[in-house]
């Protein structure tokens, strides 16, 4: 119910506290920034819609995306499944959240967008966690600055004073 398939908006308004299958509840997120809405891409929406169709046949009243029996899955089930599939595919398994952040950084997205999408309260959290993934653009900035300032050499010095002993002779000439 937190995903609007028409607009693509996913509302993140709660956290699932999960102890076991009979002891779980929804709680408020840790920070106000964690309550947010993010847009999902068309591919993800398509996969979620296909999964929802299958899920409704098997468990008609299921309220959880990641559920096979109407109850939320354990917090270890998804990482275990991803590890197994990553091993079969011969790729490195990473956490979904970290992979999402890495992909956005690689696409050139700003730290502010990442902060909002991940629900961090402070930009320092985002930069402290993912800052090392941002490319060093120092050289690119220097290239962009080249040619911005335009000036012409003065014919004469208008500064007839100076306290700098190294430039005094230049200004007097």
Low-confidence stretches: none
In angstroms, what separates the terminal alpha carbons? 80 Å
Strand order of the biggest β-sheet = 1-2-5
Rg from C-alpha positions? 27 Å
How many helices does DSSP assign? 7
Mean pLDDT: 86
Structural class label: alpha+beta
Question: What string, H for helix and E for strand, traces the elements in order?
Answer: EEEEEHHHHHHH
User: What's the total count of β strands?
Assistant: 5
Biggest sheet architecture: 3 strands, antiparallel
Measured as a percent range, the helix fraction is 40-55%
What is the overall shape? elongated
Strand content: 5-15%
What does this structure look like?
By secondary structure, this protein is α+β, with helices and mostly antiparallel strands. Helix content is 40%, strand content 12%. The protein is built from seven helices and five strands; from the N terminus they run βββββααααααα. The chain has helices spanning 42-58, 77-89, 96-106, 111-118, 123-130, 138-145, 168-172; strands at residues 3-4, 9-12, 15-20, 23-27, 36-39. The longest helix is centred in the first third of the chain and has 17 residues, at 42-58. The termini are far apart. The model has no long low-confidence stretch (mean pLDDT 86).
């Amino acid at each position: 119910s937190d995903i609007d398939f028409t607009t693509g908006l996913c509302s993140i308004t709660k956290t699932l506290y999960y102890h076991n299958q009979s002891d779980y509840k929804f709680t408020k997120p840790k920070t106000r920034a964690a309550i947010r809405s993010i847009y999902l891409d068309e591919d993800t929406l398509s996969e979620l819609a296909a999964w929802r169709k299958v899920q409704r046949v098997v468990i008609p009243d299921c309220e959880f995306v990641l559920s096979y029996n109407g109850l939320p899955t354990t917090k270890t089930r998804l990482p275990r499944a991803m590890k197994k599939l990553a091993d079969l595919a011969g790729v490195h398994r990473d956490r979904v959240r970290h992979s999402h952040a890495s992909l956005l950084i690689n696409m050139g997205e700003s730290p502010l967008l990442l902060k909002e999408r991940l629900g961090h309260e402070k930009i320092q959290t985002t930069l402290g966690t993912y800052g090392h993934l941002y490319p060093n653009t120092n050289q690119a900035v220097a290239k962009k600055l080249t040619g911005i300032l335009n000036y012409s050499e003065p014919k004469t010095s208008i500064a007839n004073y100076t306290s700098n002993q190294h430039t005094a002779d230049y200004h007097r000439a």
